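Record 1 of the preview.
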Amino acid sequence: MSAVLRLVDWSDESDVPEPAGSAIERYKEIVATATEAHARMRAHDAARNAELSARIGQTQERVAEISEREQMVRFGAELHWEAAKKQLWNETWFRMTVFPKPDESVPPRPQGEYNAAMDAAYDVLEASLQKKPLLRRR
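->
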């Protein structure tokens, strides 16, 4: 294989292509663009981090409130259960059982509705036990 070497006469400057810039200048432009993009990305990440940190704090507070509310509701239900057992202790037809587990199949509603229903059911029980029976046992 023979190599052909052609000599180009650059004496006529009209044939010389215009350099778009030196490689160093182009490298500096690329690095500057990358540095700017990196700085924007870090600023965006810092803002997003601050936003998510605030949301985590709010979520943790909400979880703590809900957990406390759940404990209070369970405590109230257990108090109602124990009071009902005391009132029905002398009733021979009533079998004492352990505190029932929550019914998970109940559709979700505001907790206040459930609390009101629990209180109303207990009030009905209490009222029914206050009524005098029509026939007295001997």
